[in-house]
């Protein structure tokens, strides 16, 4: 009974499954197909599914009409209200359907209550949005020059992500007579470019070739990609060495020394590497006897003498030289070298000194015999006839003797050891052969000294500059004399000439080292009490009898920077350098607040003053001129600026050890009416201060001018008493900073000119090398002076700047 009951149930199940299968088949067979282009914008309409399937739009939302997809980011979506299929995001066909000719996307749409499934196919159409590209931008190929035409070289194909007609359709090769391009279509694998050699390669003509391979797709217009191909042609040994000359012929003298170059042959090979390296050798046909006489450098091709070359044995040689390369199968070339031997005078004359005196006094009379010389030549005839001679630039001569081939070396003029203390006399003996052979022998003749020269000082007169405040007992300067004589005749001792003259009292404060001429000051000099003096130094030699000479020494005392700047304005009632300035608040930029006035009793750089702001409350408000000391406003005042400003000004000179002073200015900013009232009160007080400032400045300028005029007068006076043979020097201060004068001096004929103009630094000098006079100029005058040499008078012209 149970089995009977089961059979009807199983029959009903089969029937239900069949009905469901029929329904599903009918739904699946009712598919829709749409097509869109890739890269369309989001929201683009693909098609109206509800309309095309005949669905009721009013029930779509209620039946939850949707697209079933496992993708988290679906490409399409359907609207519940109207049943239209839309694009959810941009579609890249190459990404969705890589390397597929047809890109078909299947969508499954579902409705519930009752369940319905509909299949929609969307074909994505390709567009030409990619250019062809090669795996390599540059490709290097190495091809032997021996390759035959027709050789095929496959290249890597270009890839284009686009499909169909937009994929790579053709290749192009840049024009080259040695290569052409062939394209092989491999179906789904695309088109493969093949490089074919169509003409033989010659590395010696072109070592490399540059090609450009271009791939084009089927777009309109087509897109392209390029690859650069460099073809390097590899060398083969296909060229033999070639000599640079067709005929080699050389003349070689008999008895040429071993190692002497006979000739150098040259050969070149246009191949590369070892195939082009050339080595030289003698051919196998060269006899063993020639190999003893000559040798060849395998690298340079230089043929040299190896043995004794004798004209009497053979007057002509022919040698075959081979040039070969270093290829695996070496190629060689032979060339003959003809060597002609020229007969030579085989024996040179011989010189022998039979008697010789090694030294001769410089006061010897002309005709004094120094040496006896004999000559001999083993050759005969003209080759054995000898002529003997010495140079014409020596005070000696060869006097022939009564005996054949004998000579006497005698003096022919007075000797002077101070001009030349030693003579190397070269005696030349030459035969009459062709070509003539000669021999030389050098005789060393020493001229002994006689005390015939007085000491000479290196300068006359000497001029020295000593800075005041020197240390007593220290060396301040030195003199130097030279004696042209030798040994004891040239040993010099120094002493100061002390004749008791009133003018030479200062020499009691000086001492001199008798050995080296160093002069010591026994006391300290003071520029304010002594500015210049002179004395004489005597130099004596140790000869017998002794000779001596003296020289005048001029000494100038130089000022030191021993005075600090003095503030003239501002000065307060208690004597300190402080002042108060009131200015209206409405002044403009550039308004003169005040001027710092100062002076320095020193001269030159020591007295040249520079101003700088050491402290200031507001750097943007005030500026200071470093040369004039003027304080000016840099901008207009604002309401936020303080009413009182403190400025500390540093005034320093330009001495080597700079001295300085400071001044303090209190600037009070007041309203315009207050400033006007204050200016009336201060005008009378400032008038008295200005008078004092003017008085001090006049004293300072007057002192500087007097010192300058005294220096000019001394210079002119000394120039008039000395020689006018001057040497010019250009002295320039390398560390110049400021506006002091510097000097430029030059010479024209028998006159000397000196220009003293702006930027002359302290210590600048004018040097007369002929008389040893040096003139110092320490001045701040901004003027230019021309001083002419005194040839009968002197004059000075001033040219203002």
TrEMBL record:
Function of the protein: Potential calcium-dependent cell-adhesion protein. May be involved in the establishment and maintenance of specific neuronal connections in the brain.
GO terms under cellular component: plasma membrane
Domain called Cadherin: residue spans: 28-134, 135-243, 244-351, 352-457, 458-567, 582-681
Membrane topology: Single-pass type I membrane protein
Compartments reported by the entry: Cell membrane
Gene3D superfamilies: Cadherins
Presence of the UniProt keyword Repeat in the record: yes
Record lineage: Eukaryota, Metazoa, Chordata, Craniata, Vertebrata
Organism annotation: Lates calcarifer
GO process annotations (BP): anatomical structure morphogenesis; homophilic cell adhesion via plasma membrane adhesion molecules
A GO MF term: calcium ion binding
Pfam families per record: Cadherin (PF00028), Cadherin_2 (PF08266), Cadherin_C_2 (PF16492)
PROSITE patterns noted in UniProt: CADHERIN_1, CADHERIN_2
Residue spans crossing the bilayer: 695-718
Keyword Repeat carried by entry: yes
Chief subcellular location: membrane
Protein name: Protocadherin 2 alpha a 15
